[in-house]
Amino acid sequence: MELNRRTVIAGAAAAGLATTALGTGTARASTGHGGRKPVREPFGRLADGTRVHRWSLENGGTRLKVLSYGGIVQTLEIPDRHGRPANVVAGFDNLDDYVAKSPYFGALIGRYGNRIGKGRFTLDGKEYQLSVNDGVNSLHGGAKGFDKHVWDVEPFTDGPDAGLHLHYTSIDGEMGYPGTLRVRVTYTLNGRGEWRIDYEATTDKPTIVNLTSHVYWNLAGEGSGSIEDHELRIAASRYTPTDAGLIPTGELAAVAGTPFDFRHAKPVGRDLRAGHVQQVQAKGFDHNWVLDKGVTERPERVVRLREPRSGRVLEIATDQPGLQFYSGNFLDGTLVGTGGRAYRQGDALALETQHFPDSPNHGGFPSTVLRPGAVYRSTTVHSFGA
Ligand code: BGC
Predict the structure, then answer these.
(1) Quick check: 119 and 140 in contact, CB under 8 A?
(2) Is 352 a known active-site residue?
(3) What stretch of H or E contains 282?
(4) 34, 159 in Cβ contact below 8 A?
């Protein structure tokens, strides 16, 4: 279904989206039905006996299965251009694999998405040492991030929308972070099949926060092979180069004339082997793009991903200043996914809307500090088409 620009803007306006960043889109028409109540089923138990549930949501042609463990999006089904559905996200069919070996498949990431150099930062003159779990650095919140906790889940329907509120309280000092942080993440499927994530957090002491979602996409269908032919567009003229440990150097480098230029759609594989020093040390793309729009009041469309054979399109709108595009470099064929097939390098890619990695150690990057009395808020909307 290819919609004209007028329909898209009407859809975007209804979703509260600004359309400036990428212009045209592929949003689906509303089904006109009210949101169907999410359904819960058991998904297993952790070693300590804690029950984990799986919630199923369906709306506007999109189907989502979400675990209370890590707020993980286990499956996300959308139709291709012939109306044939496929699960387009990487995941496991059982809880044990998520606990034992997941590279953050589908999970909520906190308290800080991506890396903090040496797991150290200074806030109001005090130095904090975080849990270090990626060489000398702290990655995705440390050894036991938000992805490894069971969240309280509350289903809702609201007119045409259906969704889940997920709650987690991270206590003062957890993984080395100051302040008790109360987090609420809302997953909403609307009548057009858009998946919206609203993040909210408050703290009782000054702290840092950078929440994101770590879905791995393959729009041809999970387990179907490489994402190299996916066409990607990112509305960013600069990116943040890193050192060998993938910590930003602090520079905002121009993408023009480099493999990092996705300002016009191009296949992910086209420049993947260009041999640029930044790609060699990251084993591919694993960088933060500096979104041209910057921090915005409302989500703006910044990414378009299209898989040519199925025709499936994903568009992402965000109010965040950065996008981590990770080309699945560390997948090595040792993990077997939901469909029973192994994931090899580049069989899925992640597009994480967030603040820049290591921001607390770079005065020039947008701030990730949250103070008592203020509310951290962030929204990302995924629209699908074919
Ligand atoms: C990071 C990668 C990391 C991956 C899975 C991404 O967000 O940028 O470096 O390997 O998450 O852990």
Answers:
(1) no
(2) yes
(3) helix 277-282
(4) yes
Structural domains in the chain (count): 1
- In this structure, the residue with its CA closest to atom 7 of ligand 1 is 114
Nearest Cα to Cα of residue 142 among 152, 154, 130? 130
SS3 48: coil
Please give all residues whose beta carbon lies within 6 A of any atom in ligand 1, as ranges. Answer: 103-104, 114, 246, 286, 324, 326, 330, 350, 352
> Residue 1: inside a domain, yes or no?
no
**Six-digit token pair at 15?**
């979703």
Provide DSSP, 323-365.
Answer: EEEE--TT--S-EE-TTS-EEPTTSSEEEEEESPTTGGG-TTS
Q: Of 20, 16, 22, which is closest to residue 385 (Cα–Cα)? A: 22
The catalytic residue among 214, 230, 287, 382 is: 214
> pTM here?
0.93
- Region of 176 please: left (phi>0), alpha (psi -120 to 50) or beta: left
Say how many Å lie between the first and final Cα of the chain, rounded.
Answer: 5
CATH number at residue 182: 2.70.98.10
Q: Single out the catalytic residue among 300, 307, 352, 355.
A: 352
Tell me, yes or no, whether 215 lies in a domain.
yes
Whole-angstrom distance, CA of residue 248 vs CA of residue 242: 4
DSSP one-letter code for 186: E
Mean pLDDT of the chain: 93
3 occurs within a structural domain: no
Q: How many CA atoms lie within 13 A of 59 on its CB side?
A: 30
Residues 6 or more apart from 367 whose CB is under 8 A from it? 359
Is the pLDDT at 254 greater than 90? The verdict is yes
Given a cut of 60, whether residue 32 has pLDDT beyond it is no
Which ligand 1 atom is the nearest neighbour of the CA of 214?
7
Domain membership of residue 232 as a residue range: 10-385
- The span from the CA of 9 to the CA of 12, in Å, is 5
CA distance 116 to 139: 7
Whether the pLDDT of residue 375 is over 80: the answer is yes
What are the pLDDT digits (tens) for 186-198? 999 999 999 999 9
Look at residues 12, 6, 119, 79 and name the one whose alpha carbon lies nearest to residue 382.
12
CA–centroid distance, residue 325 to ligand 1 (Å): 9
